[in-house]
Amino acid sequence: MSLTANCTFDLNTSSDFVGKRSGYIQIGDSTNNSGWAHHCVPITSVKNGSGPRVLVLAGNHGDEYEGQTAALDLARRLEVADVKGEVLIIPVLSILASAAGTRLWPNGQNFNRVFPGKVDGTIAEKLAYFLSNDLFPTCDSVIDMHSGGRSMHFIPSITMVWVSNVELRNEMLRQSLMCKSEFTLLGGEQPSTNPDSLLPGDVVRQGKAVATGEFGGSGVTTAQSMSVISSALENYLRGMGVYVGKDVAASVYADSIDHSGKIIDSRDYSVSFASASKDGIYENRVDLHQHVEVGDLVGLIHDFKTADNEVVEVRARRSGTVALVRGYSPVTTGDVVCMIGELFSDIETFEKSLQEKSAR
Ligand SMILES: [Zn+2]
């Protein structure tokens, strides 16, 4: 158990406990303005007797507001009668970053790179330690909602890392498809990154399935991104057997929800990513959903300081569907500015293609 963080209400109630509680994860802090302080992260529990415990997380990155909005909405409206088991919601993990409109915490830490945390580390590391040691082991499943933040813009979609553990991968795929999103985006491990340092990676390290999504980006919510995330979250909770309430997302967003279950396979990051080869102002030359062929122009980089220099072209390294474009124009060499994947009409077509490739 963590010595440096705790919850203001009891997280270890008996299995037959019934009630809705809101409070804080309190992390020990000491600041210039308050010698004996706590950094407080809101948490809500809605429990109705025995059943699965599902943890809903958002705001891992501060400038990804789609998940935070959906999780805050869920925490406000979820009632005991809607639940079987327990839904635990931490809607804004990185509060200081969220308030500042930044991906990273004010001390420069990326919350999604500090796992499994440190009991005596920074505030972010203490929070990660609490999640990793006190919460994840007690949960049956976890959903961690992301988006492109200010710098990127994804097709709003459920996303899944193609983990090497086949049993876990199959369970994660089952949970992803349970969300009934229009798109499920399959990716590989983040390049040049320790996968266990990510929040979802830490859940996987503990042998548990984790659902994730990239529900838009550019640091804004849109009607479309909120429709996709609200529906996916509700379907996820219902699929896990923990939500037994009304179809709220369907009633709010009835006209715009698409459950067609298309797959975009961008697992091979060596060709799926296109990156900036120069600092400058990036111009998207393709839009989300657009089909491109290998070698097609996807963007241009303009020199900040002079119109005399030629623009630098960024070209597709594979054919496929554009799943990610740049969300913010200034770029630095090495920034990913576009992601392309192979589009499949449904999971069956994707799996058939995998079988054909392995048979070759
Ligand atoms: Zn994120």
TrEMBL record:
Co-factor requirement: Zn(2+)
Single GO term (MF): hydrolase activity, acting on carbon-nitrogen (but not peptide) bonds, in linear amides
**Has keyword Metal-binding?**
yes
- Known InterPro entries for this protein? AstE_AspA_cat (IPR055438), N-alpha-Ac-DABA-like (IPR043795), N-alpha-Ac-DABA_deacetylase (IPR053138)
The record, for Pfam families, names: AstE_AspA_cat
Q: Which UniProt keywords apply?
A: Hydrolase, Metal-binding, Zinc
Q: Which residues form the Succinylglutamate desuccinylase/Aspartoacylase catalytic domain?
A: 51-238
Q: Which Gene3D superfamilies match?
A: Zn peptidases
Keyword Transport tagged: no
Question: Could you identify this protein by its name?
Answer: Unannotated protein
Classification from the root reads: unclassified sequences, metagenomes, ecological metagenomes
